[in-house]
Amino acid sequence: MEKVKGKLLFISLLGIMLFLFAACSNDSGSESDGDQGSGNDNEGTDSGELAGEVEFMTISLLPAFEDYLNNLKDEFESMHPDVTVTINDVPYDQVEQIILTSASSGDLPDVMNLNTEFVKKIGAMGALVNMDEAAADVKDTFFEGLWNTGGVNGTVYALPWYTTTSGLIYNPDILAEAGFDAPPTTFEEAWEMSKVIYEETGAYGEVIQGEMHLLFPKNGIPILNEDNTAAAFNTPEAVELWTNLKEYYDQGLYELDVMLNQVSMAELYATEKVAWWATGPQLFRQVNDLSPEVYEKSLGGAALEGTAGKQHANPMNIAVSANSESLDAAVEFAKFVTNAENQLEFGKEAAVLPPVEEAANDEFFAQGEDSEDATERGRYYAAQSLATAENMSPQVENVSQVIEAIQEAFQQVILNDVDPADALSQAEQEVNSVLE
Amino acid sequence: MSKSVAANPSKQGFNRKKLISKFISYFFLLLLTCITIVPFIWTVSISLKGQNDVIFSIPPQFIPNTFTLENFITVWNTLPIPRYLLNTVFLTFFGVVLPLIFCSFAAYPLARMKFKGMNLIFILIIATMMIPNEVTMIPVYLVIDKLGLMGTYTGIIITGAITPLGIFLMRQGFKEIPREIEESAVIDGANVWQIFWKLMFPMVKPMLGVLAILCFISSWNNFLWPLLILDDPNKYPITLGLYQLQGAFSANTRLIAAGALIALIPVIVVFIAFQRYFIEAAYSSSVKG
């Protein structure tokens, strides 16, 4: 009797589950039908005026830039009355999770604010609109070096929105105590000064920060070969560079805390444990938040140069989802956000730099050379380096793995006394296998 | 006289030994308290510091030069805190009540009834605890999307409406009740539903309290699902709302500290009210788990 009951229960459960599955698949079937229908509708209206809903995902810009973003939205909506723009701001740390989950369900926001690494990852997945074609008309307004930052495998998938190049914020008191009256201008000079500063004051000078792979291109060593198919950094120059850095570390000139994310540069600088900090001027004010006293006496300057004499530009991009239901409106909105006028406006608000030439040449960015304020002066120098700056990160899909391989090899040298030449060839192998 | 003198030193020695061991254990407990409470005091101190006060200095400065409530006021004015708190309370209410009901429903038969494949089902449920969240995240997201629940609270609530840990705990709870009580109810003519609802459910109250606390903590702190599912800032719970204090270019540590404290106050109130159960929660999820 009980056995029969059990069987009955089992069968009925199975039946319920089957029913549920069937119901679900029916649902999704009808839904996707509906989607196609509305897609067709859109195309119908596209011939005339732009229409549809555009979701714009920004990264950590609300509420600080709420007014600016709402203005963009209002202006665009008044230009195209049939388009509705919604702004959705997400926290920087969580972008990856959001993008990857929504990309896998084909549900990406129509227009996205992405950093170059994400553009490469998602662009290579085929989820973004090809901007070489969709935005061919505005391509020439951007600095060439910055336009290419949205590229992976030879295609550009995003428009540069704003960019940052480094400036230098420095503490004149520490420099004076060590007998210097000006900050360094090159890495070589920086390390020479670091020795004196460390001996005289106990503070650090130059510190290896997170993006140490950039030291290669800054010193004329390419990270990858020309077609981005193999590592190219295993050169005698690189061995020399790492050997020197190891020597400086052994002399106690810097710690790896910053590179390992144990401590932030802003905190080190605000507690006067480091004489200068090379970073984007838009971040200088973090020092002011932490220690107004230290910020008050700080000055701004130009970023350090390696032997290549070039600076790295770190842009934020605007990309459009290839699956967008209002594709034309989304592309138009992306162009609108990145046009000269709006970029200039944003550059003024956020102390970042515009990748559109016309905006960057605005007199606003030519001011600040003699400013008492570290941020303004830093911005001046950062803007000066913009025309020749390029994004030095490898233009490949697996860029983060490439960077990680290099960083890990460097940590081996510093922490486990691995020979720099061995570590470099180890990293070379790893990068090559990542690129295969 | 001599007897009492002889007796006293040994008693004193005993007392001293006890005193010393007490002193040592209290010393370490105090030390531990100091270590664990420093981040909290640090947060309170930062939240009360004025714009010109130093946050990072060596040695650290705990007492602000200029006491101010300005940071709390700024946070209150820049973000709709009451809205966020209300949203969180709503989510937490369902995040606590639903698991209590559903986990009990699942646990009772597993603890008390005998049917074929019972152990297999239980093992399968427990086995899902070994799958990390990161693995199930995308499938769950897809399911919620296909159900049309994106942007709704329902989508968030169902992700936590039933948990394997909850089923496990409730099963332990039901198992601890003597079988005789159930049997006497059967003799009195109660059916299965009556036994469950009128008899067993009230008797597992302590375990329900434990589960409620665990669910409260995880619902209140839930960050990932609201982040993935919600797109309207007006629906944000407090955890997500506070994240807006961390901007792309600046993060005012004072405001973040103030915001964190505002979000913490309800948790502290709940903790004080249910302190006793908290300890039990820690026991039952560690010793028996």
UniProtKB/TrEMBL annotation, chain B:
What's the superkingdom here? Bacteria
List the GO biological process terms. Answer: transmembrane transport
Topology with respect to the bilayer: Multi-pass membrane protein
* InterPro entries, per database record: MetI-like, MetI-like_sf
Which PROSITE patterns does the UniProt record give?
ABC_TM1
Could you tell me which SUPFAM superfamilies the record lists for this protein? MetI-like (SSF161098)
Pinpoint the ABC transmembrane type-1 domain residues: 85-274
Q: Which residues form a coiled coil?
A: none
Q: Which UniProt keywords apply?
A: Cell membrane, Membrane, Transmembrane, Transmembrane helix, Transport
Membrane spanning residue stretches:
23-42, 84-108, 120-144, 150-170, 208-230, 255-274
A GO cellular component annotation in the UniProt record: plasma membrane
> Where in or outside the cell?
Cell membrane
The record's annotation in PANTHER family points to: ABC TRANSPORTER PERMEASE PROTEIN MG189-RELATED-RELATED, LACTOSE TRANSPORT SYSTEM PERMEASE PROTEIN LACG
User: What's the family?
Assistant: Belongs to the binding-protein-dependent transport system permease family.
What protein am I looking at?
ABC transporter permease subunit
Native source species: Ornithinibacillus caprae
The organism's taxonomic lineage, starting at the top = Bacteria, Bacillati, Bacillota, Bacilli, Bacillales
